[in-house]
Amino acid sequence: MVDYDLLIPYGWTESVAADYEPLLQANRLPARVIRMDRSECDVATPNGVLRARCPRSDSDLGGLCTGDWVALAADLSVRELLPRRTAIVRGASSGRSDGQVLAANVDIVLICAPADGDVDLGRIERLLALTWESGAQPIVVLTKVDAAQYDSLDEARAVAPGATVLAVSAATGMGLEALAAILDGTVALLGGSGAGKSTLANALLGQEVFATGAVRASDKKGKHTTVHRELRPLPTGGALIDTPGLRGIGLQDATEGIERTFSDIESLAQDCRFGDCAHDGEPGCAVLAAIATGSLPRRRLDSYRKLAKENAWMTARVDHRLQAERRREWKVVTKASRKQYRERGTYRT
Q1: Scanning 87, 198, 314, 322, which has its CA 20 to 30 A from the CA of 252?
Q2: Which residues are annotated as a binding site for GTP?
Q3: Are residues 235 and 105 in the same domain?
Q4: What is the pLDDT of residues 230-255, one digit of tens each?
């Protein structure tokens, strides 16, 4: 007997159920991807957790990721991918025109930054832009505050307008109750290696699920103890996705995410004398005036420019790749057509 209640801990809602209605008539089994392993994946279904076969990576259904809602055929092969409500996508470093989807259908992203050293504000800003662009709600979590040399809450809050910023310690339990109280739906953890993501995930889950490791004392960096993105139900409701540490975090088509991350600068820019002010010495620039008075750090404007420039470059590169891909596809079609005409004896040069 099919028991859809078994899917509730994995994020099953009335909205998701409505998306599945047309597929259920075709005897498809609803499932959520909880872990990817090359050509196979673990999925949560109304019949429990099962092992399913994934489509080829170059097929229309390629690129499945943890958090996706899919439909299975009777042979436990993935046949349909439901539209993603949100998707955390970072720019691809390879020659592909599409980005890499880190997690799908995420409601809240916990941006983990270790507080036992100098807090990397630039990385927080980058992850905020990535999260805002995905459609999820970011929460900045300063981890390891029991080992912090100074209180970095205020400086983290200054770079995260519109986002909640909390300080926690998985070792002592400090702040965990407050964090758990505001989690809802599917939660993903993002951050670099050694940021304490897996330790925090285990604390929120109430058990040692994910492997953890020590960080180097010299540079506070850790090894990749998490090698898979994996979804687990939270005891307080909702689900959690732990992810491997991110070294490179490329932005791609993240204009809206950057604007929301730097909403303080965007708001100041509305008071500039010129509508196209570049904040680079123009008279009547409200942004430079804020820097002069100390209400806006120069580092903040430099970071804004850096991310905006990178995003524009990546977007242009993707456009060039798409054009090149279309040209290659057109050449293949043209070559095949010419061959067909030659075989018929009707092609003229």
Answers
A1: 198
A2: 143-146, 191-199
A3: yes
A4: 999 999 899 999 988 787 788 888 99
